[in-house]
Amino acid sequence: MSEPVTLAWYGCDVRTGGIIEELPALTPTGALSSRLGSSTSTSFSLALAGAPRGWEAATDQGRTMLVGVDTATDIPVWAGIVLTREGGSAPTVTLAAATPEAYFDRRYSGPVTAFQQDQGAIIASALGPVLVQGPVLVLDNPGTGRLADYTVADGDDRTALSVLQELMGAEGGPEWTVDVAWADASHTGFVLPVRVRSQIGTQAAVPEAVFDFPGCVSSYTLSESYEQGKGATAVIARGEGEGDARLTSALQVGAVEAAGWPRWEYRFTPASGVTDPAQLTAAAVKSVALMQTGAQVWQIEAVASVAPRVGRDWALGDTVRLAVESSPRHPAGTEAIARAWAWELDPGADRVRPILVQES
């Protein structure tokens, strides 16, 4: 059954999550998007002729967030903190908003000294200061069941975002994202759950969400790359310092070299302020595991009104299935089960674009 994707937009107090105004005259000027462990942003246009009396209070930069709710499912699908607002003689005001993960780059990590602690507890310690005088964040962190060592000091001036991304980038590191949900059954506001897991989403061997071609999928592309930064068999992670004094990981070599692959080297800095070589080595181990056979990414464009519904049928981190009956690239058909590491939703164009990564 075809269900047009229509979003109801709300301007909300970022500290309390309370709805200030409904904004029916608000329109995204680009696709909405979400990505694991990272922030995204988009711009909006607000037609002043259709704006409510309290539109200014509902769109104040730094103080408010915009939340889009799927009217067919009543599920909040996107939230963004307003960062800029521009208007004058034009009949519209332009807004720019970034998903709540961006806030973590404006707050600094708490000090952490952890030895064989659950990764979830390490993230909770790092986020401690961020939860004070911040947005309406709720820590959804039951523990990952994986232990790790980690150290960061206040004097390192590490943002919470850099610490969380470093932890996620290490071998066996935890995954995290910031969701948006109704605060209560009365629907007077929203909360922002900070979800931390060993893996975000549901990884099913036979996913219920199926994107078929031909069918709901209008086009797809399989991108395979061994370019710089996407493929490597030997990886070193670098930290602070210069020359021989620079922190470095041990060289990590992928198993594919023993199978006959030539050596492709990659050196990178996972995050600023890293002071522990063991943390660098953990990042290098994870990188070579992901990069040794190169990147394989499926980019799908589907008709949103007939495709599996984001937020209801699948979400960030879930595995979904792409079923191709026949195409020029796959004349005999193909099937892929891959994780949704990111998505884009353009309600006005009736398009949804899952970004699927095959991890094995």
What can be said about this structure in brief?
With 360 residues, this protein is mainly β.
What does this structure look like?
By secondary structure, the chain is mainly beta. It has 4 domains: 93 residues, no CATH class; 94 residues, Phage tail protein beta-alpha-beta fold; 79 residues, no CATH class; 58 residues. The protein contains 4 helices and 23 strands. Strands 2-1-6-7-8-5-3 form a 7-stranded antiparallel sheet. A hairpin with a 7-residue loop joins strand 13 and strand 14. The longest helix is centred in the C-terminal third of the chain and has 15 residues. The mean pLDDT is 93.
Q: CATH topology of the largest domain, which one?
A: Phage tail protein beta-alpha-beta fold
Physical arrangement of strands within the biggest beta sheet: 2-1-6-7-8-5-3
Low-confidence parts, pLDDT < 50 over ≥5 residues?
none
Approximately how much helix is present in the residues? 10-25%
- Give the count of structural domains: 4
Q: Report how far apart the termini are.
A: 34 Å
Q: Main β-sheet, in a few words?
A: 7 strands, antiparallel
Could you spell the SSE succession in H and E letters? Answer: EEEEEHEEEEHEEHEEEEEEEEHEEEE
**CATH class membership of the largest domain:** Alpha Beta
Please, how many helices? Answer: 4
Radius of gyration: 22 Å
Q: How much of the polypeptide forms β-strand, as a percent range? A: 35-45%
- Provide the CATH architecture of the largest domain: 3-Layer(bab) Sandwich
Shape: globular
- Structural class determined from secondary elements: mainly beta
